[in-house]
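Run log, item B.
One chain of 77 residues. Sequence copied directly from the ordering sheet:
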Amino acid sequence: MSIITVDNVNYETELFSERGKGLVQALLEADVRLREATMTATLLQAATIALIEELKAEHLTEEAIAPEDGTDTTTEE
């Protein structure tokens, strides 16, 4: 017997209509996908932090600071 709890009330899903069982299945699949998406977002946030830290440590030098007036100081060769 499968039981689903909604608003603190337990329901036996075997007693649901076919449509109700389908809704429960869709809900379970949506929950799995949401957990996967949350994990992906967490991994992307961690990667962003690591990339910013590497950029700060190795590439954001005094020489790379842009002038306040926004002029381009690079030269083409």
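Observations after the first pass:
- The chain has a mean pLDDT of 93.
- The beta strands are 3-6, 9-12.
Flagged for discussion on Thursday.
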